[in-house]
Automatic annotation (TrEMBL):
InterPro entries: C-type_lectin-like, C-type_lectin-like/link_sf, C-type_lectin/snaclec_domain, CTDL_fold. The keyword Transmembrane helix applies. The chain crosses the membrane at residues 133-155. Pfam families: Lectin_C (PF00059). This is Macrophage mannose receptor 1. It comes from the Eukaryota. Residues 1-105 form the C-type lectin domain.
Length: 201
């Protein structure tokens, strides 16, 4: 694909052509790009020149880290685009119409923002809004059901432990009561014996 087609494809998938922010990310991309050397010689990345000739990332962040190949970039080719070499990982400038692979980078979405993302997408895209709204409602329903089950089981565990504690207390009282009753019975029988002995004498 050309650079412009690659940008369009990345934007449609919710991202943009990749930026490379540090050597670690550059090494990661180079290692993985090397796996595709049989399919393409390079990949478009998200560097472009603005109207002032300044090179920026597609997300308009500054170009703080660079990994240019030898003799790159050429100042006389301002309207050219940047590829990452699949063989070396170095960057070079090529005509934007060249057919290359491309690497998209998508922003991380926090799980709790997923529902909000679905909702805002539903407003933007009327064709899919009905489906997105159902997905949002299903997600909310699943969360509510999960919370309901969790509360139910916590309540059930709490009441079971309270019931077991009451049963143990009743058993303890019953045992104590039985012990007291036996002692009283023994005293009564001893007193009866003594009375019988006294009456015989």
């Amino acid at each position: 694909m050309s650079w412009a087609q690659s940008v369009t494809h990345c934007v449609q998938s919710g991202g943009m052509l990749t930026s490379v922010e540090d050597p670690a990310e550059s090494n990661f991309l180079a290692e993985h790009a090397d796996l595709y050397t049989t399919k393409t010689s390079g990949f478009w990345i998200g560097i472009y020149r603005n109207v002032n000739g300044q090179m920026l990332w597609q997300d308009n962040s500054a170009l703080d880290f660079v990994n240019w190949g030898e003799g790159q970039p050429s100042e006389d080719k301002l309207d050219y685009c940047v590829e990452l070499s699949a063989f070396s990982g170095y960057w070079s400038i090529l005509p934007c119409s060249s057919q290359k692979g491309f690497i998209c980078k998508k922003p991380k979405i926090h799980p709790f923002l997923f529902a909000l993302h679905l909702f805002t997408d539903a407003k933007k895209d009327k064709a899919h809004s009905h489906m997105n709204m159902w997905m949002l409602l299903t997600l909310v329903l699943i969360i509510l059901l999960g919370m309901g089950f969790m509360i139910y089981f916590l309540f059930k565990i709490k009441t079971q432990s309270e019931t077991q504690r009451e049963v143990r207390q009743q058993n303890t009282r019953l045992e104590y009561s039985c012990v007291l009753t036996r002692k009283d019975d023994e005293k009564d029988s001893t007193n009866d014996k003594e009375k019988n002995e006294q009456s015989i004498v």
